[in-house]
Structures are given as structure tokens and as C-alpha cells.
């Protein structure tokens, strides 16, 4: 964590589908949007992991776990493509995968 950055609160989660256990940073919608937009635009996790770690200072394990569960398309399960309920953190009713359905830049004022 860089000097001057306040400590980020972490929220432990478990994915019923893949069995992963990791902690998600508790951050605001604008930070979620920056990270989700970097992930969705790059179609890859490397750039998004860098953005997530720079914004929050979390470790690589939690960053990777978080981004493996961010939706690639809003309101759509990252694993099976099924519809989600609109919650920021939800389990897909079809495949039981944890989804972090973070907003993107187009939906955050």
C-alpha cells in the first residue's frame, strides 16, 4: 500500500461454484466503475488488476479473486451468461457462481 493511502476495508466472500474464498475491497461506485470499465474494455484482467491494486492497495490474491468474479457484461453472469438480479454482489441463480456486478463509467454520474 502506498504512503498516504488510507486502509481499505475488506469484505470476505466465497464463490459457491468454484469454491474460491477471497476478500473484496469495500469501495465506492466510482472506484468500482473505474475498475470494471478497465476490465470490460481491455477484455483481460492484467490492466484491471493493476488499476484495482493502484486504487486500493490490496494484495494480488484478492485482486485476482475479485476480478475473476466481476461481470464482463452488466447484469449478466460472468460464467454462464444468465440474467442477474441487479445486486452489486450476487450469486447466479442458474450456475451458482458469485458475481460482482459492478457499474461501469456509463452508469455512474
Summarize the structure in words:
With 109 residues, this protein is α+β, with helices and mostly antiparallel strands. Helices cover 31% and strands 15% of the residues. The protein has helices at 29-42, 45-56, 60-67; strands spanning 10-14, 21-25, 89-91, 98-100. A hairpin with a 6-residue loop joins strand 3 (89-91) and strand 4. The radius of gyration is 13 Å and the shape is globular.
The total of beta strands comes to 4
Mean pLDDT over the full residue set: 91
Residue share in helix? 25-40%
Overall, the morphology is: globular
The rounded Rg comes to 13 Å
Q: Helix/strand/pairing class, anyone?
A: alpha+beta
- Biggest sheet overview: 2 strands, antiparallel
Intertermini distance: 28 Å
Number of helices: 3
Written as H for each helix and E for each strand, in order along the chain, the element string is: EEHHHEE
- Report the portion of residues in β strands: 5-15%
Unreliable sequence segments? none
Q: Within the largest sheet, what's the order of strands? A: 1-2
Keywords:
109 residues, alpha+beta, two-stranded antiparallel sheet, two-stranded antiparallel ribbon, 3 helices
Blueprint (SSEs and pairs):
Layout: E1 10-14, E2 21-25, H1 29-42, H2 45-56, H3 60-67, E3 89-91, E4 98-100
Short description:
The chain is of the alpha+beta class and 109 residues long. Helix content is 31%, strand content 15%. Strands 1-2 form a two-stranded antiparallel sheet. The chain has a two-stranded antiparallel sheet with strand order 3-4.
Amino acid at each position: 500500500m502506498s504512503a498516504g493511502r488510507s486502509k481499505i476495508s475488506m469484505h470476505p466472500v466465497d464463490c459457491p461454484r468454484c469454491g474460491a474464498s477471497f476478500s473484496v475491497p469495500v469501495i465506492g461506485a466510482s472506484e468500482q466503475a473505474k475498475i470494471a470499465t478497465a476490465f470490460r474494455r481491455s477484455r483481460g484482467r492484467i490492466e484491471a488488476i493493476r488499476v484495482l491494486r493502484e486504487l486500493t492497495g490490496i494484495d494480488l490474491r484478492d485482486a485476482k479473486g475479485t476480478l475473476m468474479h466481476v461481470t464482463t457484461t452488466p447484469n449478466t453472469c460472468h460464467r454462464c451468461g444468465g440474467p442477474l438480479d441487479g445486486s452489486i454482489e450476487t450469486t447466479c441463480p442458474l450456475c451458482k457462481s458469485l458475481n460482482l456486478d459492478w457499474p461501469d463509467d456509463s452508469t455512474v454520474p
